C-alpha cells in the first residue's frame, strides 16, 4: 500500500476549491421570488398527493372492513 504525504496533495486541493468557487460564481442562480414560487408549487403537490393517498387509504380500508369483518 502506497503511503501518500497529505502536504503534497494540498496544492491540488486548494486549486480544486478555487475552481469550485469560480464555477459557483458562473452559475445562473434563480431569483428569490422564483425560488419561493417553485417551492410553494412543490409543497402544494406534496400536500395534494398526501390528501389523495389518505382518502384512498380510508376508502379501501372501509371497503375491506365491510367485506372481511
UniProtKB/TrEMBL annotation:
It is found in: Cell membrane; Membrane. The chain crosses the membrane at residues 40-60. The keyword Transmembrane applies. GO terms for molecular function: protein transmembrane transporter activity. It is a single-pass membrane protein. Component of the Sec protein translocase complex. Heterotrimer consisting of SecY, SecE and SecG subunits. The heterotrimers can form oligomers, although 1 heterotrimer is thought to be able to translocate proteins. Interacts with the ribosome. Interacts with SecDF, and other proteins may be involved. Interacts with SecA. This is Protein translocase subunit SecE. The lineage of its organism: Bacteria, Candidatus Wildermuthiibacteriota. The gene is secE.
Amino acid at each position: 500500500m502506497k503511503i501518500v504525504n497529505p502536504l503534497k496533495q494540498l496544492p491540488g486541493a486548494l486549486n480544486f476549491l478555487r475552481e469550485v468557487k469560480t464555477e459557483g460564481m458562473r452559475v445562473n442562480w434563480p431569483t428569490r421570488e422564483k425560488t419561493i414560487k417553485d417551492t410553494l408549487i412543490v409543497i402544494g403537490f406534496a400536500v395534494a398527493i398526501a390528501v389523495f393517498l389518505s382518502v384512498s387509504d380510508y376508502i379501501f380500508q372501509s371497503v375491506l372492513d365491510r367485506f372481511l369483518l
